[in-house]
Design goal:
single chain; about 250 residues; alpha/beta; Rossmann fold; six-stranded mixed sheet; four-stranded antiparallel sheet; 10 helices; 10 strands; binds adenosine-5'-triphosphate; binds magnesium ion
């Protein structure tokens, strides 16, 4: 499989604090990777470091063979990194449609394609960002990342704090994006079993290092590893649920 994204011995953090102590992982063309681990182990910091929002301390980040670890976040988007922040990052004073078209770049994912993926967004196209439910905000956040037409999509807890029925809807959309469309992705998710079912590989972090790396199918069956690193059995959450957002 052609390697699309490579992290090799990545060290990064915030200010003087080093949070990632040499993280290595790779994502192949068309591959989806689940990034798991307890609260505070460095999952968001890993995605932030790919995007370029942390202090770099060493190691390699490459997309499509191009080293990007010293590029600005803007240049990394140009290199093909698409990103959905944990705090969603939509423009509250723009409409749904303006939020999407403001960032769109030419490619397979255009307004029509994201409206097909999320019919609710089409229904709410004239609503402002601050007039959306938590689930709709998350759909908009994913739509905005898709219309950048990235080589790789980074999703940080896309279902966090949402009602179960919305969680199902979002996971079904993510399945379509990674399975049917074959877009490479790294997905941080608390719903371990559900995300293992729609990803190829899984990486578990523990205190800023990779504690486990293997196939998602194998990990889904490996109760001992799930218990050891995530503190859960089959079907439970990977980390403590946070406050309901909406
Ligand atoms: N902006 C920041 N400045 C300083 N330290 C930070 C910052 N953001 C996170 N950290 C620290 O980095 C470590 C890893 O945090 P990170 O947000 O990457 O964890 P996480 O695995 O995403 O956790 P969660 O499951 O709670 O989202 C934590 O110790 C956290 O306190
Ligand atoms: Mg996080």
């Amino acid at each position: 499989m052609t390697e699309l994204l490579t992290l090799d011995g990545l060290k990064a953090g915030y200010g003087k604090a080093v949070v990632l102590h040499g993280v290595s992982l790779s994502v192949g063309q068309g591959e989806a990777v689940a990034l798991l681990g307890r609260n505070g182990v460095g999952k968001t910091t890993t995605l932030n470091s790919i995007v370029g929002l942390t202090r770099y301390h060493g190691g390699k980040v490459a997309v499509g063979g191009q080293n990007i670890e010293r590029l600005t976040p803007e240049r990394r988007v140009e290199a093909g990194v698409g990103w959905v922040p944990q705090e969603r990052g939509i423009f509250r004073s723009l409409t749904v449609e303006e939020n999407i078209t403001a960032v769109a770049r030419p490619g397979r994912w255009d307004l029509a394609a994201v409206y097909q993926l999320f019919p609710r967004l089409k229904e709410r196209r004239s609503n402002y960002g601050n007039q959306l439910s938590g689930g709709e905000q998350q759909m908009l956040s994913i739509a905005r990342a898709l219309v950048l037409n990235p080589k790789i999509l980074l999703l940080d807890e896309p279902t966090e704090g949402l009602a179960p029925i919305i969680v199902e809807e979002l996971l079904a959309a993510i399945r379509r994006i990674v399975r049917d469309e074959g877009l490479a992705a790294i997905i941080v998710e608390q719903h371990a079993q559900q995300i293992l079912a729609i990803t190829d590989k899984a990486v578990i972090l523990e205190r800023g290092t990779v504690a486990y790396s293997g196939s998602s199918a194998a990990l889904a069956q490996d109760g001992a590893t799930l218990g050891k690193f995530l503190g859960v059995g089959a079907g439970a959450a990977t980390s403590a649920p946070k406050q309901q957002r909406h």
